[in-house]
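In this supplementary section we document a worked example of the pipeline. Step one takes a protein sequence of length 267 as its only input; no multiple sequence alignment statistics are reported here. Step two produces a three-dimensional model, which step three serialises into C-alpha cells for compact storage. The input and output of this example are shown verbatim.
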Amino acid sequence: MLKRGRVAALPREASPVVAENPLGGKDAGRCDQPGCLPPRGSRGFTLIEMILAVGIAAIVLIAVNAVFFAALRLRDDTAEMVDAASPVDAAVGFLKRDLECTVTPTNGTSKVMSGGFRVGDGLTSVGASGPVSIEMFTATGALSASAPWGDIQRVTYELRASTDASAVGRDLYRSVTRNLLSITTPDVTDQLMLSGVASLKFSCYDGMQWDDTWDTTSPTAIYTNLPAAVRVDIKMAGRSDMGAVEIVVPIDSQSRTNMVLTASTGS
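The serialised model returned by step three reads:
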C-alpha cells in the first residue's frame, strides 16, 4: 500500500536573472552578475556593420565627387568659350552693319550723300595712322543733339601691332571719321574691336567672281558701283580650337542710271 505523504518538488532549471538597480536612473537595468543578459535595445553595431556602412558611404562620396568636378570643368570650358566668342560676335556685328548700310559710290564726282568704296591691301586713308584693308562711307553714324554730324561717316578696318608685347597676333581696329567736310586732317576715332587676329581679308563679288580689290574713287575706275556682296575672312592667332570666321554680307544699295552711252564714229 502506498503511504500518503508529501511529494518532493522537482528542481526547476535556473533562469537568467536580470539584475535591477533599486535606485533607478542611468544604472537601471544594469547587469552586474554573471549569467545575466543586457536589456533589449541596448546592443551596439558590430564591426562588420561599421565596415559596410563606411564602404557604402565612401562609394557614394566618390560618385558625388566625380559628378561635381565634371560639372565644374564643364562650366569653366563653357565660360571660356563664351568669353572668347563674345568679342568675335561683336566685331562681326559691326562689320555686317557697316557693310549693309554702305552708301553708293561717287565715281570721282561730287555726288551728294555718297562716298567711295575701296578694298585692298595697303590702302591709305586720310587720318589713318597706317594702311587699311577697307574704306567705305556708311550710314551708321549716331545722330546726337550735341554733335552737328549726320549719319553718314567714313569707316575703315585695319590690323595693327598689339601694344602688349606678349600678345599673340594683331589687333583689329575700326576707325571712324564723322566730320566729312573738314578742310584739314579730320579727327579719327579708333575703336579696338578684336585682339589676337592673325589675318583679315575682304573679297568683293561682282556678280560673277570674287575679287580681292575694289576701288570706285577714280573717274576711270573699272568698278563704278558697289559690289553685290562682300566676304570677310578673319583668322585668329593661337586658337587651334577656333576655325576661321567667314561672313558674306549682301549689299542692296546699288546706283542706277538711265544715261545712254553715245559713241562718235568717223565718216
